[in-house]
Design a protein that fits this description.
The structure is a single chain. The protein has 2 domains: 87 residues, Leucine Dehydrogenase, chain A, domain 1 (Rossmann fold, 3-Layer(aba) Sandwich); 123 residues, Rossmann fold (3-Layer(aba) Sandwich). It contains 10 helices and 11 strands. The strands form 3 sheets. It has a 6-stranded parallel sheet. A 3-stranded parallel sheet has the order 3-2-4, sandwiched between helices. Helix 7 links the parallel strand 5 and strand 6. The longest helix has 21 residues. The chain starts with a strand and ends with a helix. The mean pLDDT is 97. It binds NADPH dihydro-nicotinamide-adenine-dinucleotide phosphate. The site of NADPH dihydro-nicotinamide-adenine-dinucleotide phosphate (NDP) has 25 residues, from helix 10.
């Protein structure tokens, strides 16, 4: 039976430490605030934004959600980001993705000053991760690494296989694992014989966006399996990993819900606090 990498427990432990850091910032008279920009009315984004607001409230971080209509012009979005860049009460700015199609996501993210880019998506922060410099690390990859380390999963010298090569999950998580001295393979939709790769993995990260895509026969016995996927099936949230068939084979496994998603929000809080501490 696999050890559960329980995001609820691991994030609660971290949140307790973060609360102390928020208190210390406040005692020193340093503002700590998160501004979240939500464009349009995508239902999943609304839920994510609400959860981020709740986490801020739990820690005593000021949070502000700025809602813009779905037909917002690029110039108006960028003007709002610039205003927040100059607002001393705000330590972190987050643009909830995806943006409506007519907007240029990369251009909007570049407008956030890197010091306030708590999502770690700015090209400067991504570049720092890829060149081994200290910058803001994207929340989901950072949360995955924290989850693996806190669960005692050995990393150095191990085979890590990441499925998915997005800029927000797959690529940065591969880079973090490489920095931990894993031997990393990055798979994607054109990968041939995916199972041959996954069966070699001591650490398997699934960030595909396909419900129950990874099955027990694709997993090496004793592997640590991290499920990043959030898929809605018949009104239920399920991951990219078929928990029922993988759990008996794996050494560690993260559940969905209650796994990586919890860690992601926790790391967003940490990045916001770190941004306030740096000022
Ligand atoms: P993307 O859609 O950007 O990327 C999906 C990746 O999966 C792509 O690289 C794609 O390959 C690859 N892929 C698709 N089909 C296959 C296949 N048959 N075999 C191998 N690889 C395949 O998704 P994201 O990275 O943004 O997100 C992935 C999942 O994680 C989603 O379910 C998302 O909701 C969830 N997520 C969860 C978060 C959390 O906090 N828990 C945070 C962010 C995302 P190619 O590049 O070739 O198209």
């Amino acid at each position: 039976m696999a050890i559960l990498m329980d995001g609820k427990i691991l994030s609660a432990e971290r949140m307790a430490q973060l609360r102390q850091r928020v208190d210390a910032l406040k005692a020193a008279g340093k503002p700590v605030g998160l501004a979240v920009i939500l464009v349009g009315d995508d239902p999943a984004s609304q839920v994510y934004v609400r959860n981020k607001g709740k986490a801020c409230e739990e820690l005593g971080i000021e949070s502000e959600t700025l809602r813009l209509p779905a037909d917002t012009a690029q110039a108006d979005l960028e003007a709002l980001i610039e205003r927040l860049n100059g607002d001393s009460r705000i330590s972190g700015i987050l643009v909830q993705l995806p943006l409506p199609r007519h907007l240029d996501e990369a251009a909007a993210l570049r407008k956030i000053i890197p010091e306030k880019d708590v999502d770690g998506f700015h090209i400067e922060n991504a570049g720092k991760l890829f060149t081994g410099q200290t910058g803001v690390v994207a929340c989901t990859p950072k949360g995955i690494l924290h989850m693996l380390k806190a669960s005692g999963v050995p990393l150095s010298g191990r085979e890590a296989v990441v499925i998915g090569r997005s800029n927000i999950v797959g690529k940065p998580v591969a880079m973090l694992l490489l920095n931990e001295n894993c031997t990393v393979t990055l798979c994607h939709s054109r990968t041939q014989d995916l199972a041959a790769h996954t069966r070699r993995a001591d650490i398997l990260v699934a960030a595909v966006g396909k419900p129950r895509f990874i099955t027990g026969d694709m997993v090496k016995p004793g592997a640590a399996v991290v499920d990043v996927g959030i898929n809605r099936v018949d009104g239920k949230v399920v991951g990219d990993v078929d928990f029922a068939s993988v759990e008996p084979v794996a050494g560690w496994i993260s559940p969905v819900p209650g796994g990586v998603g919890k860690m992601t929000i926790c790391m967003l809080m940490e990045n916001t606090i770190e941004a306030a501490e740096r000022r």
